[in-house]
Amino acid sequence: MRCPYCKKDNDRVLDTRTADDGGVIRRRRVCHCGRRFTTHERLEELPLRVVKKNGQRQPFRREKVLAGVQRAIEKRPIPAERAVSLVDDVERELLDRGDREVPSRTIGELVAAKMRVLDDVAYVRFASVYREFQAVDEFVKEIQTIRSEAPPAAPAPPRQYHGPDADEPTI
Predict the structure, then answer these.
(1) DSSP three-state, residue 108
(2) Would you state the pLDDT for residue 51?
(3) DSSP letter at 158?
(4) Are the C-beta atoms of residues 11 and 3 closer than 8 Å to each other?
């Protein structure tokens, strides 16, 4: 492996571990120049192709899916790692299907389903772009669907009164 610092290929492996449920091997290396770096090995799979609405075919790019998810969860209390995990799950499901060509609609529906479980607001944001909402009514309809399918919220606990005791007169 070529060192990213000195560009020589004289290094040795210090540590090897599996990652991503065994789908990736992570190796910690040290170069003869003394610098350390990490490499990741993945199984080479046949490329997945996306069939767009217009029939055009292009390679699946997880970065593109991740960018859409990140835009949807922006300013929401969702860790960035969760977005990466969601995209990993979608990619794994697509590859497990065994189809080498997948309609973009299938990818969008998979992402939307996972976003729905993750966060309702992020889901509506994603759905509005993916399904190309043109009017406010479409937002309202989607929100009503979420509300009708959501389990009833637990009642709020009674509020605690932290002011002066009721027995004491206030001045």
Answers:
(1) helix
(2) 96
(3) P
(4) yes
Residue 63: inside a domain = yes
Whether the CB-CB separation of 48 and 64 falls below 8 Å is answered with: no
Same domain, 108 and 137: yes
Q: Is the pTM of this model over 0.90?
A: no
The number of distinct structural domains making up the chain is: 2
Percent of the chain at pLDDT > 90 equals 57
In angstroms, rounded to a whole number, what is the distance separating the alpha carbons of residues 58 and 101? 9
Q: In which residue are the tokens 């969702």 written? A: 78
21: left (phi over 0), alpha (psi -120 to 50) or beta: left
Binning pLDDT at 50, 70 and 90, where does residue 29 land? very high
Name the amino acid, one letter, at 146: I
Mean pLDDT in residue range 5-19: 93
Instruction: Give the phi and the psi of residue 24 in degrees, each rounded to 5.
Output: -140, 140
Please indicate, yes or no, whether residues 33 and 98 belong to a single structural domain of this protein. Answer: no
Assigned domain for 20 exists: yes
Domain that holds residue 34: 11-42
Whether 139 and 61 share a structural domain: yes
Is 88 exposed, middle or buried (CB count within 10 Å of its CB: 0-12, 13-18, 19+)?
middle
